[in-house]
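User: My instructor asked us to take a sequence, write out its structure as tokens, and then describe one feature of it. I'm not sure where to start. Here is the sequence I was given:
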Amino acid sequence: MRGSCANGKKDLVQKIYELYPQSNRGEYLFVKLAEFRSKNAVEFLYRNGHNDTLLVIKAFVEAARFGNTVVVEFLLDTKRIVSDIFDKAFEYAASSGYRNSPTAIFLYYKKLASKNSFIRVFEQAHDISVLKLLFEKKMFRSNLSLSRLTVPHTAGEVQILKFLLKCECISAQSIGKAFVNAAISSQTGALEFLCRDSRLPTQAVDKAYIEVVTRSNSKIMRLLYDTKRVSPEAILKAASSYEYFNVLPVAANYLFADERVSEEVKNQALLTAAHHGHSRVFSWLRSSGKCELPVEMLEEALGVASDRHTVDIITELIRDHI
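Assistant: Let's start with the prediction itself. The structure tokens for your sequence are:
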């Protein structure tokens, strides 16, 4: 096909065009050629009658998606690309993952994209060079909330996340969401540098802590607790989630060992555990050798214990104190 175009064999090109299935998952030959850098073939077909507007639009978008800048430039010069289609192509060029940042940058400098499209490109771009360009051109104001500030899984995504965290316009809310997602996904590297950001809200740290408790992830629990940013209220809530048996000893340890947690709160946690028959809390207190609670507190828990096993363990704890 390319050779026929180059040699000007119009009849042969027309024959190939007619033999090619007009629909292959909805894709036409004109569009396929636009995807695969066949600028000469695209131009030849266009100038010889295969230039339906809808076909041109689809070819333009697909060429941008695959990073074929020469085809994008040719189709743009046809003056048949309207604003919303330009925006779509710009966003695809920035986000499709085909290493096509040169195409996105080419489209940026055409100055035809809408303001909303710039924001979507910033949220979706896979290449840090596109993000840096948008920042250098001061496309954004302060306190920008980004859905893209999520857990990085590749070296490129880590690079992007670190770059974003240096930008003052990123909102605390976005950083908080990224932190919670990193905790849920056990991304320790992302957690460590997100935690160093002064904009990270306490509420996000608490939410992340509770989330990993519900997932029985003791490793991330320890990492979050060691930041000293988990509130006493979150520590209590986690220790009260007694159905998560695998992490109960860890949660109970933090509750009863943390100096920030008041005796009143510890007492309430014990009463709740006794009332619901969560004997494992008291078993852990006894086996850990860390039970320094007043006998009066244990006796109060004994008074509300709801099952025989819990009563027996609390009784043993009281005897240990006497």
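For the description part of your assignment, you could build on this observation: Residues 1-8 have pLDDT under 50 and may be disordered. Try explaining in your own words what that tells you about the chain.
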